[in-house]
Amino acid sequence: MVGFIGDPLPEGLALHAGLDEWPPRTRNIIRYVFTHPAARSVLGDWERSAATCVANLRHLIGIDPGAPDLHGIHEELAAASADFRRLWNGHDVHPRRTGRKTFHHPQVGDIVLTHQTWHQHDSATRLSLYQPEPAHTDQVTLLAHTLQPSGRPDRTFS
Fold first, then answer.
1. Greatest CA separation found in the chain?
2. Residue 112 gets which letter from DSSP?
3. How confident is the model at residue 126 (pLDDT cuts 50, 70, 90)?
4. d(Cα 23, Cα 54) in Å, to the nearest integer?
5. Which of 17, 97, 3, 25 has the alpha carbon at shortest distance from 55?
6. All domains of the chain in start order, with CATH
7. Which is higher by pLDDT, 75 or 14?
8. Contact indicator for 26, 42 with CB cutoff of 8 Å
9. Which long-range contacts (CB under 8 A, 24 or more apart) does 33-42 make?
10. pTM
């Protein structure tokens, strides 16, 4: 659902309400968490999501310290967000492995996903699998129906 530094693939846009309204080149999950006005209401545990994003960004920079895109997003968010600076100054470093995420989606309600991420040793290559908890499969199905073939949410769904 996301690329190397959190750039969402089209299928990942629908979970992060409002992200599809940004120009494609600025769509990024880390940027969304710290700068989008909807992020705090969409993400069920914003503080944990934010801390995980920062720790994972530190991990990725450790793997590829010369990557300009990683340093660019760090510099942008350090300038834009006091919360990002606070979490960055905590020096927490770890890759995302497993977890549970809750999304408060404005169209389909709460969605709870569990995830597992596998990392290729000493590489930024990773595979993440997200699965809805059994009580939330209907919401994921509804969310999938809100997507147009372009991958952008269908604004006519009600």
1. 46
2. E
3. low
4. 23
5. 97
6. 10-145 (3.30.450.180)
7. 75
8. no
9. 34/77, 34/80, 34/81, 34/83, 34/84, 35/77, 35/80, 35/81, 41/104, 42/15, 42/16, 42/17, 42/18, 42/103, 42/104, 42/105, 42/106
10. 0.76
